[in-house]
Amino acid sequence: MAFRFPLVEALRAQDLDEPSELIHGFHAYPARMHPAVARVLLRELSVGPGSEVLDPFCGSGTVAVEALISGWRALGSDLDPLALRLARVKTERRGPKTRARFLDRLAAIGAASSARVRDRDDVQAKISADERRWYEVHVLKELAGLLEEIRKVDDERDRLALEMVFSAIVVKFSRQRSETAARTTDKRLRKGLVTEFFVRKGEELAAAWAELSAAIPRPHHLPRFVLSDARRLPRTLAGEYRCDLVLTSPPYGGTYDYLHHHARRHAWLGISPKKLREKEIGARRYLSRGNGGAGSRARWDDEMTAVLGSIAELLRPDAVAVLLVGDAELGGERIAADSQLERLAPAAELEFLAAASQPRPDWRGGPPRREHLVALRRVDFAGPRG
Questions:
Q1: Has residue 384 got a pLDDT over 60?
Q2: 104-137 burial, b for 16+ CB within 10 Å, e for fewer?
Q3: Of 199, 214, 229, which residue constitutes the final position of a domain?
Q4: Cys-Cys crosslink for 27: which of 102, 168, 291, 309, Cβ 3.0 to 4.6 Å?
Q5: pLDDT at 364
Q6: Statement to judge: residues 110 and 187 lie in one domain
Q7: CB neighbours of 263 closer than 8 A, spacing ≥ 6?
């Protein structure tokens, strides 16, 4: 089918060497869509200048960044406020003056933080006792002092960007083993290293802004972002919003817990994870328990049916939705994601158009699971299959 060709091309593109990742690699974010996938699909599925793309699971903003440089209008939503803060910073268009101002503030904060470390400043970390246990005492104090200096910045735009620089390094300097493994491990970290990495990461962000700015066309459309559960997005938008393309990567069922992955960041930045705790879709803590089975499958089906219904409501009559999905892991059982979407699509008044698949390593050490790009469109407006 014609729709399958851009899907295959997009999957192949992520395995090719890229000359640049633009700003995508600035901040770790588990399971983000590969930029090449978004780039190829935005190129192949454009319906003309000012086309509108919606990403209901925008995460760190991969689709939004690629839409910005491809001339698309973009709207991203996510249930996690951290994701939206990060996506906004990554899609800023900063000219030489605002980048220079940011670098001046970054250097001043670095100098103030180094002085705190040298003077053994007795600063209190404003996080819970349970969170403090994730850090060596001297690291805890250095992070706390660094954040105090960031919070003194009066310019909101720079302050929020500096907070995302802090967010980008905080897990590295905790006892958390890695971004996706919430287990403790010993790390030997000398005093002052936190500040050095913070300044280095901030300089990396400024350089990435410069590269991004050079890649953005004129005219362009800055992406918009809203906080929303993907299943309630039509209610959140509460208007006549419709898009030409939905391009998104929902969580892979039973694979991740974003609540746990970003817990260190939420605590330092004062972000309440209440909604994420209650409403996170596909969460491993709910779907991969030992008593999974039929209950987990039914829950995952219900969650994805609601997502598909929301997507269908927001598509224009001639629009397409493309979902990057991975096979679910439900109570030890693999569930093929493309087959699940094909089975659930009719209930959401969507037609399954095409899919392309490839194997991906299982980071937990199991056999490879398959990753799929699936194209859908609304039944009530669908013509003959391409």
A1: no
A2: ebbeebbebbbebbeeeeebebebeeebeebbbe
A3: 214
A4: 168
A5: 64
A6: yes
A7: 131, 182, 273
- Summarised one tens digit per residue, pLDDT across range 319-374 is 999 999 999 988 778 899 999 999 999 999 999 999 999 998 776 667 778 999 99
Same-domain check for residues 169 and 285: no
Closest by Cα among 45, 40, 61 to 248: 61
DSSP string, 7-25: HHHHHHHTTS--S--TTGG
- Residues 46 and 139 grouped into a single domain: no
Tell me how many domains the chain contains: 2
Q: Which two tokens stand for residue 348?
A: 């959401």
**End-of-domain residue from the set 214, 236, 271:** 214
pLDDT score of 382: 46
* pTM exceeding 0.85: yes
Domain range enclosing 101: 96-214
Q: Are residues 76 and 103 in the same domain?
A: no
What type of residue is 131? E
| Element containing residue 377 per DSSP (H, E) | strand 369-378
